[in-house]
């Protein structure tokens, strides 16, 4: 059942809305963009950038304070048990300035760099992931970040001091029948004098239950004097007509304050509009360019914890006369966790430092970090549960009740699962990154495959494409990766960089061949595009791991061990890359489509016989028709 308020839009309109929201210019270089084009620009990431001394000192001082708070004031078991972060814990976070980590000091914030903000999230997320989610939703996508990038000075002066110390913020985009397709957004903001009148329902509003300030995406109808389109607003959560109708519960992140928020004739001053009308999605996507780094940062923290538990448990637990870590079947899992944690931290630190320096465009790097981090974080947690065996499946409370160490392995598996969905599911991230990866091709040859373009347009596009490919294709034939003495300053890791360079050119050739083969149907080949992106993610992670290892060696900071971890990771990644290259052309994509068609038409309905469905009654999608709320307001601001 579809909510009656949902807008019906064509596939073409949906794509046009998404395309219009993209940042379409590349004003700064991008390592990942060049990688997908077959150009291994090592100079963009090496030598590894480092934070300024003052930034590092300020960051380390806060990390020390935060670590003490995590160890003495956060009771993760209580949060899991009560499914709520205690108010006194949130008050304590406010007192130490954790709400204002990313907010400039002139507004009362701490002014941390992206590097130290992410280190802080990794730390607090290890104490309890729900707290990490609260702080991340507040600062990475809530009110502070869009105002920092797009807000007026008056808006910054009004709202940022509140966000730095007292007020929790939330970001509201998703609706009951609108996920990653914003063209169908149904929440409306109708101009009325000096105000907008807001009506609609928002789903999965992280922090929404306790928020004081909301960033709301709503559609402004086009009218005289109003351009219209999806627009961003700052809305007071306590405003008349705002109702939190439900606090949602999930398989993980049990302490998260996530709800359903209804707006009924809510008056929002025009002064609270962020940017011009119609700029809402562009604001959201630009905010996420660095905001997405918070999720892989917390996955780094999870990986570090998984490694600690795997090490301690595997040394203590014996089977067949020796510790289980010495059995190859278990040891390979420990090696995977250690190597992947090192690489993932390298990806996040490198991307964060590049964001701080603002020399490079990191939109693809941040998206790759989010995709790779969320997938690898889940795998590391899954391997930890397997290493722990039955104890990995048992809850921490149950372990403690029978006298064993309360290790919440099953909890971290549940908590990390949402990261593959949060802020763009892995499937959507694949498509988003793929669109950016083929941007250079579409910019020169897009009109050739556009059925609505005239013959004249196609002719001009053919000439433009011919010039581009005449220069580009020959460069994909040979490169530094084929020379045995290239990158020798990296020692034993040089071979991995040569592999990355060769693989990048192969990746670009494969993409070009696919575009030539499928042309306008390329966008439907989501399996192929996903593998292209996964190869790029592995190559980016390999590059980051090698550059970080060399940086640590140069600074004499665990350099030998870092080189060993980078070497192991790269060898593991190369196996995955080689498999992905093979699956570009040898796969079951066509057969899968036939099976899906049969499933949807009921051809295989007989296969579902022999079970009962324990699901409850009700529509698949809740009715989100605008109107007054008929439910109790469960909003509970923390003061």
Automatic annotation (TrEMBL):
<feature type="domain" description="Acyl-CoA dehydrogenase/oxidase N-terminal">
    <location>
        <begin position="60"/>
        <end position="165"/>
    </location>
</feature>
<dbReference type="Pfam" id="PF02771">
    <property type="entry name" value="Acyl-CoA_dh_N"/>
</dbReference>
<dbReference type="Pfam" id="PF02770">
    <property type="entry name" value="Acyl-CoA_dh_M"/>
</dbReference>
<dbReference type="InterPro" id="IPR009100">
    <property type="entry name" value="AcylCoA_DH/oxidase_NM_dom_sf"/>
</dbReference>
<dbReference type="GO" id="GO:0003995">
    <property type="term" value="F:acyl-CoA dehydrogenase activity"/>
</dbReference>
<protein>
    <submittedName>
        <fullName>Acyl-CoA dehydrogenase</fullName>
    </submittedName>
</protein>
<feature type="domain" description="Acyl-CoA dehydrogenase/oxidase C-terminal">
    <location>
        <begin position="278"/>
        <end position="436"/>
    </location>
</feature>
<feature type="region of interest" description="Disordered">
    <location>
        <begin position="1"/>
        <end position="23"/>
    </location>
</feature>
<dbReference type="InterPro" id="IPR046373">
    <property type="entry name" value="Acyl-CoA_Oxase/DH_mid-dom_sf"/>
</dbReference>
<keyword id="KW-0560">Oxidoreductase</keyword>
<feature type="domain" description="Acyl-CoA oxidase/dehydrogenase middle">
    <location>
        <begin position="170"/>
        <end position="266"/>
    </location>
</feature>
<dbReference type="Pfam" id="PF00441">
    <property type="entry name" value="Acyl-CoA_dh_1"/>
</dbReference>
<feature type="compositionally biased region" description="Basic and acidic residues">
    <location>
        <begin position="9"/>
        <end position="23"/>
    </location>
</feature>
<dbReference type="InterPro" id="IPR036250">
    <property type="entry name" value="AcylCo_DH-like_C"/>
</dbReference>
<keyword id="KW-0285">Flavoprotein</keyword>
<dbReference type="InterPro" id="IPR013786">
    <property type="entry name" value="AcylCoA_DH/ox_N"/>
</dbReference>
<dbReference type="InterPro" id="IPR006091">
    <property type="entry name" value="Acyl-CoA_Oxase/DH_mid-dom"/>
</dbReference>
<feature type="region of interest" description="Disordered">
    <location>
        <begin position="617"/>
        <end position="639"/>
    </location>
</feature>
<dbReference type="InterPro" id="IPR037069">
    <property type="entry name" value="AcylCoA_DH/ox_N_sf"/>
</dbReference>
<keyword id="KW-0274">FAD</keyword>
<comment type="similarity">
    <text>Belongs to the acyl-CoA dehydrogenase family.</text>
</comment>
<dbReference type="GO" id="GO:0050660">
    <property type="term" value="F:flavin adenine dinucleotide binding"/>
</dbReference>
<dbReference type="InterPro" id="IPR009075">
    <property type="entry name" value="AcylCo_DH/oxidase_C"/>
</dbReference>
């Amino acid at each position: 059942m579809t909510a009656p308020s949902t807008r019906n839009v064509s596939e073409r309109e949906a794509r046009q809305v998404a395309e219009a929201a993209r940042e379409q210019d590349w004003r700064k270089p991008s390592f990942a963009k060049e990688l997908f084009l077959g150009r291994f620009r090592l100079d963009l990431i090496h030598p590894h950038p480092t934070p300024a001394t003052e930034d590092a000192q300020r960051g380390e001082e806060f990390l020390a304070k935060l670590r003490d708070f995590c160890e003495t004031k956060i009771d993760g078991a209580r949060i899991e048990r009560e499914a709520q972060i205690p108010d006194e814990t949130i008050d304590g976070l406010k007192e130490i300035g954790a709400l204002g980590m990313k907010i400039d000091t002139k507004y009362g914030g701490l002014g941390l760099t992206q590097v130290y903000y992410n280190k802080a999230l990794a730390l607090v997320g290890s104490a309890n992931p729900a707290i990490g989610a609260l702080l991340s939703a507040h600062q990475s996508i809530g009110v502070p970040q869009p105002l920092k990038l797009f807000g007026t000075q008056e808006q910054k002066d009004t709202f940022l001091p509140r966000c730095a110390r007292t007020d929790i913020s939330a970001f509201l985009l998703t609706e009951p029948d609108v996920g990653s397709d914003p063209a169908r957004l149904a929440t409306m903001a109708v101009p009325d004098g000096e105000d907008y009148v807001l009506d609609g329902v928002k789903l999965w509003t992280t922090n929404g239950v306790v928020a004081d300030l909301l960033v709301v995406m709503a559609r402004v109808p086009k009218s005289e004097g109003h351009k219209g389109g999806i627009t961003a607003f700052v809305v007071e959560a306590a405003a008349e007509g705002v109702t939190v109708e439900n606090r949602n519960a999930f398989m993980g992140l049990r302490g998260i304050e996530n709800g359903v928020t209804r707006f009924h004739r809510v008056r929002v001053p025009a002064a609270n509009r962020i940017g011009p009308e119609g700029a809402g999605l562009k604001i959201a996507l630009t905010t996420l360019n660095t905001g997405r780094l918070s999720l892989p940062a917390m996955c780094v923290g999870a990986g570090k914890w998984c490694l600690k538990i795997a090490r301690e448990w595997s040394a203590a637990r014996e089977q067949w006369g020796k510790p289980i870590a010495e059995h190859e079947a278990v040891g390979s899992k420990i090696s995977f966790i250690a190597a992947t944690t090192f690489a993932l931290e390298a990806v996040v630190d490198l991307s964060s430092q590049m964001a701080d320096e603002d020399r490079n465009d990191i939109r693809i790097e941040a998206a790759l970090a989010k995709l790779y981090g969320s997938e690898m974080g889940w795998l590391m947690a899954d391997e930890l549960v397997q290493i722990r065996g039955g104890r990995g499946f048992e809850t921490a409370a149950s372990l403690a009740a029978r006298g064993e160490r309360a290790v919440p392995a099953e909890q971290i598996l549940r908590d990390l699962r949402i990261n593959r969905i949060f802020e763009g599911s892995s499937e959507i991230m694949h498509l988003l990154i793929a669109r950016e990866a083929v941007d250079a091709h579409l910019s020169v040859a897009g009109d050739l495959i556009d059925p609505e373009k005239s013959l004249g347009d196609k002719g001009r596009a053919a000439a433009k494409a011919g010039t581009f490919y005449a220069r580009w294709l020959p460069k994909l034939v040979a490169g530094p990766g084929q020379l045995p003495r290239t990158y020798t300053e990296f020692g034993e890791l040089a071979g991995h960089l040569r592999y990355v360079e060769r693989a990048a050119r192969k990746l670009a050739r494969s993409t070009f061949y696919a575009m030539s083969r499928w042309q306008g149907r390329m966008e439907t080949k989501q399996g192929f595009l996903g593998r292209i992106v996964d190869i790029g993610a592995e190559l980016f992670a390999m590059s980051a791991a090698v550059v970080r290892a060399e940086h640590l060696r140069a600074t004499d900071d665990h350099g030998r061990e870092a080189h060993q971890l980078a070497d192991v990771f790269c060898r593991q990644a190369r196996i995955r890359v080689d498999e992905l290259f093979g699956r570009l052309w040898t796969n079951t994509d066509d057969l899968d489509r036939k099976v899906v068609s049969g499933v949807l038409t009921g051809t295989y309905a007989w296969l579902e016989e022999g079970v009962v469905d324990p699901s409850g009654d009700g529509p698949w999608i809740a009715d989100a028709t605008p109107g007054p709320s008929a439910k109790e307001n469960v909003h509970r601001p923390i003061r």
